[in-house]
Amino acid sequence: MNRQDKEIAIKSLKKNFETVNGSFLVGIKGMTVEDTLVLRKNLRTQGGSMHVAKNTLMKIAAKGVPGFEDLIPYFKEQVAIIFAENDVPSVAKIVAKTAEDNEKFVIVAGCFEHKAASKDQVVFVASLPSREVLVAQLAGTLKAPISTLAYQLNMLMTKLAVALKQVEEQKQK
Fold first, then answer.
1. Which domain, by its residues, includes 41?
2. pLDDT by residue (tens digit) across 82-97?
3. If you write DSSP's letter for every residue of 101-130 in order, what string do you get?
4. What is this structure's pTM?
5. Residues 83 and 149 in one domain
6. What's 97's DSSP letter?
7. How many other C-beta atoms lie within 10 A of the C-beta of residue 106?
8. Which of 95, 96, 117, 144 has its CA at a distance of 20 to 30 angstroms from the CA of residue 162?
C-alpha cells in the first residue's frame, strides 16, 4: 500500500467516524473469508458496513474525532470496524448474533453518537427493539387513553339506550 492509498483510506475512515450514528470495534482473528462475506452481506441488509484496515491507519483516522479517540487503545491485533448508518440496534443485533454463533468473532467496544461504549453496552444496545418497533409501541401508548375514553363513552351511550328502552317498556305496561 503506497502513501497515496494510505491517505485515501485515512480520509475514508475519518469521514465514516464523523458521520455514522454508531460503530462497533470487533476482533476478527481466525475468521474465514466465507464467514466474513456472510457477515458483510447481513450488515448491508440493515444499513451497516464492515471495514478492515491497518491499526495504524485507524489510529490516525480516529485522532481528533470525539468518542473514537477513546477507542484508539483497542486498535491492536486483528480488528475491524463496523459502521451503522441509521438503525444502530439492528446492526448491533447482527454483531451480537455473529459473536454468539462464531467464537472467533469478538465484540471489543463501540461508539454511539460520538461516545465510547464498552462491550456490555454494545450487547445492551443489541437487546433493544428496532426503531420501527419502538415507534409502534409509542403510538400504542399514546392511542390507549383515547381508545379507552371512546370505549367508555360508547358504553355510556349503550347504557343510556338500554335504560330508555326499559323505561319505555315499563310505561307500556
1. 3-128
2. 999 888 888 999 999 9
3. H-TT-EEEEEEETTEEE-HHHHHHHHHSPP
4. 0.73
5. no
6. H
7. 18
8. 144
